[in-house]
Design brief:
The structure holds 2 protein chains of 2 kinds. Chain A has 13 helices and 15 strands. In chain A, 41% of the residues lie in helices and 18% in strands. In chain A, strands 9-11-10-13-14-15 form a 6-stranded mixed sheet, with helices on both faces. The longest helix of chain A has 17 residues. Chain A is an alpha/beta fold. In chain B, β9 and β10 form a beta hairpin. In chain B, the strands form 2 sheets. In chain B, strands 4-1-5-6-8-7-9-10 form an 8-stranded mixed sheet, sandwiched between helices. In chain B, strands 2-3 form a two-stranded antiparallel sheet. By secondary structure, chain B is of the alpha/beta class. The two termini of chain B are 32 Å apart. The mean pLDDT of chain B is 97. In chain B, α4 runs parallel beside α6. The relative contact order of chain B is 0.12. Chain B has one domain: Rossmann fold. Classes of the chains: A alpha/beta, B alpha/beta.
Chain lengths: 393, 315
């Protein structure tokens, strides 16, 4: 049924696109996303998919065309990175505000200045409150699996929201890994036929998209919009359950690794979670009760569930691959902190910023964090609340 | 058979842009939109609007003036948005999910077209989407309160380049967007004016019948921004054409035709003197500025005559 291959993360996601065959794919090149759309464009050129591409002149137009195409009444996907997300920013809010189920892999890359093409999470984090659902992926397999599930989540009639699938630039996008591909037919059946909702192309039932709404009703429209996000976690779990049936792979709102009996913990997103798990195994062998929580559904953030999963710990380090300049904490830290703030018993939290602009996250960085957490859990004292790690002296 | 473009037949057609919109009294934009949709009366159409006067006044809360499918995305992306709609149409048609022959019209003001939406427009035209882009050019950012745009005429008074003791309104020339669009090598580009309504509607109809990207720039007086009387929109449009401030022409497959040649080219002051935004030009000592405006118009008109097809020049 499944086929095992050795491919890059971008190739895996391009293959998911091939299997799903969106009706329209606007695309604009940006490193490290480029390879994904190049590979998909080859499927289009060879007649392997029915997709129409729009090779736009900017990411702003890519997202604008996505909005038009999705409102017209079909399945739409694009992909980008870094400055591309930043340029799309205005239209991201419009895509979610108009409830358009657009799928967009974000191949995470640092933001300028200075210009840097390598991985960090500043791009997707800058768009975390744009109303897009965000699924984060540790490796190429998760990027592929999340892409397939994203269509089902976005297009669910209770949701109808756009979804970003985030995976690490170069580390995942360009590294060759072992992947299990699901059969084309099975993927097609899983995703299903696209069901349009109020399509613009329904000429006999004209609809107006994008009205002006001022002080009389804007507040109410936004309140109604915010209610939709409450339904997302349930749908994400339902889709994950169905996905397990076709793949054998389990997905949740987040991954807990050796967390249940742990005393100290690390919270970390995407590829660095893999390295961290290895180091956790080493410390477990030494008898250190350390565990990990890796968020998958980052938006909407499952505060309650994450809070419950972490509240029994003594000390937690949240590792952010993006900084929030202006004296604040990393974006992941802020959400973890908010998840725990109303618990009576809760861990001490520290925030470490790592891996900006592709700086390697090494096992010794995880070791350093675990050592520090052990110290904090013994003394209850924090030396430094927020600090960069892996900085060259 | 196509509906003839005469008043008898057109008056029987349903208006697909209804009254009850909230555009200002005397605004030419709804007149232009009604003309466009009447010219398109034989086709189902989908319209995209850029943010602007027309957009904010035509679809508010649960009310819409559009009896055709309509989408507003943002300010600078009506062309890109419509390129998405049009591509989805082609995709679904190819799959046999749609069989109707639908036409796609994007409409933006001069700010959303000459300035902030220029890249989006240029890209959509270069990608050869089967759509008509109409710019309703009222010569400034009227929706936000009469700020200067790339389409604002030289020496016009605007709120961001107000007439003062040191500066006499906008010092620069207008961007000649119609020529720039013609330079894209697209099959059809035209300039039109609501004063010459059959000419405008013929151009829209011709554009819709041509495959590929089309652009029409429509002169659209704004009494609030121009400081003119509310019932002078059509008179001002006519004067703009008769003074050759706004020549009516089309560029079809690279060949330029002037579609209306004034019998007698009127002096531009006939057009300028009716407008409060040019009031300062009629103060003593400003004669040179008026002469300069006239010279620019003369130069551009001469160039257009030279560029137009030889048949036209024989007349």
């Amino acid at each position: 049924m499944t086929k095992v291959v050795a491919v890059t993360g971008n190739e895996a996601v391009a293959n998911a696109f091939r299997q799903i065959e969106p009706d329209v794919c606007p695309a604009y090149p940006i490193t490290p996303q480029t390879e994904l759309m190049q590979r998909f464009a080859a499927f289009v050129s060879n007649g392997q998919v029915k997709t129409e591409m729009i090779l736009v002149e900017s990411e702003h137009s890519a997202m604008s065309a996505c909005v038009g195409a999705a409102a017209a009444g079909g399945r739409v996907a694009t992909a980008t990175s870094s400055q591309g997300v930043a340029l799309m920013w205005e239209i991201l809010f419009i895509a979610s505000g108009l409830r358009l189920p657009i799928i967009m892999p974000v191949v995470n890359r640092a933001l300028s200045a200075p210009i840097n093409i390598h991985c960090d999470h500043s791009d997707a984090m800058g768009a975390r409150d744009s109303g897009w659902i965000q699924l984060w992926s540790e490796n190429a397999q998760e990027a592929y699996d999340n892409t397939i599930q994203a269509f089902r989540i976005a297009e669910h009639m209770d949701i109808r929201l756009p979804v970003m699938v985030c995976y690490d630039g170069f580390i995942i996008s360009h590294s060759i890994e072992r992947i299990e591909y699901i059969d084309d037919v099975v993927v097609k059946e899983f995703v299903g036929e696209y069901k349009p909702l109020y399509p613009l192309l329904d000429i006999d039932n004209p609809k107006s998209y994008g009205p002006l709404i001022l002080t009389d009703l804007y507040h109410e429209v936004r309140k109604a919009h915010s209610e939709v996000y409450k339904k997302v976690p349930k749908v994400v779990l339902e889709v994950a359950k169905d996905f397990e049936k076709i793949s054998g792979r389990k997905y949740g709102l987040f991954e807990s690794y050796r967390l249940d009996d742990a005393e100290i913990g690390i919270v970390i997103l995407n590829s660095a979670a893999g390295t961290t798990k290895d180091v956790i195994d080493e410390y477990r062998e030494k008898g250190v009760k350390v565990g990990l929580l890796k968020p998958r559904l980052f938006r909407p953030f499952p505060y309650e569930e994450v809070g419950k999963a972490l509240s029994h710990l003594k000390a937690v380090c949240v590792l952010d691959r993006a900084d929030a300049f202006g004296g604040s904490f990393g974006p992941l830290y802020l959400d973890i902190s908010a998840s725990l703030c109303n618990f009576k018993e809760k861990p001490v939290l520290i925030n470490r910023i790592y891996g900006l602009g592709g700086r390697d996250y090494m096992p010794e960085h995880a070791q350093q964090v675990i050592e520090e957490l052990q110290e904090i859990s013994k003394t209850g004292k924090i030396k430094i609340l927020k600090e960069y790690i892996g900085v060259r002296e | 058979m196509a509906t003839p473009l005469n008043l008898k037949e057109l008056s029987k057609q349903e208006l697909r842009f209804t009254s009850g919109h909230r555009l200002c009294a005397g605004c030419a934009a709804p007149t232009v939109v009604k003309m466009i949709l009447l010219a398109a009366c034989d086709y189902p159409v989908v319209v995209a609007s850029a943010t602007g006067c027309l957009e904010v006044s035509s679809c508010i809360s649960t009310y819409t003036a559009w009896k055709v499918p309509w989408i507003h995305n943002a300010f600078e992306n009506a062309a890109a948005t419509m390129s998405g709609v049009e591509t989805m149409y082609r995709a679904l048609k190819k799959q046999g999910k749609i069989d109707k022959d639908i036409k796609f019209i994007a409409i933006g003001g001069d700010g959303g077209t000459y300035d902030i939406g220029f890249q989006s427009l240029s890209g959509a035209m270069e990608r050869w989407h089967n759509m008509l882009y109409v710019c309703y050019d009222n010569g400034a950012y009227m929706n936000t309160g009469i700020q200067r745009s790339g389409a604002t005429p030289t020496y016009a008074d605007t709120t961001t380049c107000p007439v003062g003791s040191a500066i006499s309104g906008k010092p620069q020339q207008r961007k000649d967007l119609t020529r720039i669009m013609a330079a894209h090598g697209i099959p059809y580009v035209a300039q039109a004016s609501p004063s010459h309504w059959t000419d405008l509607m013929k151009k829209v109809r011709k554009a819709l019948e041509i495959e590929g990207p089309k652009f029409i720039n429509v002169f659209t007086p704004c009494n609030r921004g121009w400081r003119t009387k509310t019932d002078d929109a059509i008179l001002l449009s006519r004067l703009a054409v008769e003074t050759c401030f706004w020549p009516l022409y089309e560029v079809e497959n690279g060949v330029t035709h002037i579609t209306f040649k004034p019998r007698e080219k009127k002096p531009v002051i006939d057009f300028l003197k009716m407008q409060g935004r040019f009031k300062h030009l009629f103060e003593p000592g400003k004669e040179r500025l008026l002469e300069q405006i006239q010279q620019t118009i003369d130069t551009n008109w001469e160039r257009l005559l030279k560029e137009s097809s030889p048949e036209e020049n024989k007349e």
